[in-house]
Structures are given as C-alpha cells and as structure tokens.
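Collaborator request, handled under Task 6.
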Amino acid sequence: MKRQAVFAVVVTVVMALTCASAPALADTQALDFTRWNELSIFEKMTFGWDFTVAQPVQVTQLGTWAFWTTGLRGPQTVTIWGPGDEELVSATVSSNGAYRGWHWQMLGLADQVILTPGATYTIGAYTADDAGVYRALDLTVSPEIMYEGGRQHSSGYGRPDALPWFPEASVFGPNFQFDPVPEPAAVQLPLLLGLAGAGAWWRLRRHSSRPN
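Structure tokens returned to the collaborator:
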C-alpha cells in the first residue's frame, strides 16, 4: 500500500513537471506593414482581406489599424467569416484597446475560435467614418497565415466579397492575433515519456526491494 502511494506521488509530480515545462504561447499577429502609398476615408463600408491557414490557429484578439494618433474616430466592428458567410467571431474595437506594434488597436476575446486548414476565411472591419490604408506596402505575414488579397463591401456591414477598386490593393483595416494550436502528438509525447520513466523507476524499485 505504501509503495502504491509513493508511485501515485511520482506520477503526480511527473505530470506537474510535464505541464510546467510546456512552453507558454504568446499571441502572434497575423500580418503587418511598414509603408503605404494611399490613404482613404471609409464611410459606412466593410473592408478587409481573405486568408487561409497553414495549421490550426486559435484567434485570441481582433483589431484594426488606426491612423490618428488618438486612436480610432469611433468603434469599428471586426469580424471573421468562414465558409457559407458564417460569422465565426466578432468584436467591437474602440480606442480603449491597447496599441500593438504600429497603429494597431487590438481587443482580447473572451470567446476564442479555432481556424483550421482547408477553408478560406475573410476578416473585415466596418466603419462609419474613419481613415484606413488602401494600398499597404511591404506586407509581413506570419508563416501560419496565407494572405489571399484585399476585399471590400461597399454598402454597410457585410462580408467583404468584392475586389477593391484597384484589385492589387491591400486594404487595412482589420487584423487579428492568434496562438498556434499544438498537434496532439506534441502535447501527449512529454506526458507519455514521463509516465514511462515513472514506470521504469517503479519496476526498479520493486526489484531492488526484493530479498536476495
């Protein structure tokens, strides 16, 4: 009975150490840019971009680009749509959010969503009257995200499903942050190795405690 209790303690310690040794995930921004050659005032329209993902990712924050030094003129509704025009996640971003990098206003999500490969997603930001970048330059895109081009919806709130007035334009607008979702094997392997080590220790302990 005493040996069983010791073994249980060992297993508990191994599991705790395994969880503690797992690297903490830090939010990654989907994309960024450093220059632009055209600004526009977007009035009562939704603008954004299409994308796919190379691996499952969990969306942790939604945000939008703010031109003014004081932040956004007014709240903007940022939404990610999935296949079939389904709204997967949405948030109202205002100037109460924190800046991320250069002119990004981000808002953390209480209800986070996981995006998976094989589908095309659209992120859009609806604004009643605010400035945005119509031709962004020097895009830097996270390896997990594949940028598919700018989109717009010119009549109110809705999924941006049309090409911009200039098809090559990158329109911002919206952005998001995410955490990569680990593969199940990567999560299970440290635990399995820890349990195997505990089992080996237990067998060695039993063998050494037998009388000669």
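The cover message to the collaborator said: "Residues 184-209 form the longest helix (26 residues). Residues 2-24+185-209 form one domain. Please let us know whether this matches your experimental observations."
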